[in-house]
Specification:
3 helices; two-stranded antiparallel ribbon; alpha+beta
């Protein structure tokens, strides 16, 4: 399974998402984690980037919100503890187990 972390350097939240993905990759060796910097408006449009961090599973945004704007911004996720800059590791486990 391919998992791609889309991010831009100025948003610190991608580091937490990356740490969660590293943990999950250690648990599930079939995961192939890739990282891609999205640093221009053109790249954001090309990837349909809805904020940093975005997590694609086999090319599909695992937490897609069709109403979210495409562009270079930090993304907000709804978690059990309220809004956060990254999904929880439990949320990531859940979406990975669904695919």
């Amino acid at each position: 399974m391919d998992v791609t972390l889309l991010y831009f350097e100025d948003c610190p939240n991608w580091l937490k998402a990356d740490a969660h993905l590293r943990t999950l990759a250690a648990e599930r060796p079939e995961l192939r984690i890739m990282r891609r910097i999205v640093d221009t408006p053109e790249a954001a449009e090309e990837t349909r980037f809805r904020g940093s961090p975005s997590i694609l599973i086999d090319g599909v945004d695992a937490f897609a919100d069709a109403a979210a704007l495409v562009g270079l911004s930090c993304r907000v996720y709804q978690t059990p503890d309220g809004p956060a800059g990254s999904p929880t590791i439990e949320q990531l486990r859940a979406v990975l187990s669904e695919t």
